[in-house]
Please model this.
Amino acid sequence: MSQAPVVTKENDVWVIRIDRPNGKAQEYRCATESQARQLALVLGRPDSGGPPRPGISTSSIV
Model:
C-alpha cells in the first residue's frame, strides 16, 4: 500500500511526493499550496473499487 502524500515547497514550487509499493517515488508539482494540498487529498484516497477508467481494457462480455 502506498503511503500518504507529502507536500513540500522547493524553489517556489509546491511538490507532492508519494512512495509507491514498488519502492519508487512519484512526484507532482503545483504552482500554489492550495493546488498541491487539494491534489494530495485526491491522490491519498484509497482505491474505491469503482468502474475502470476509459481506455483500460477489461475482459469482454459475451
The longest helix spans residues 33-43.
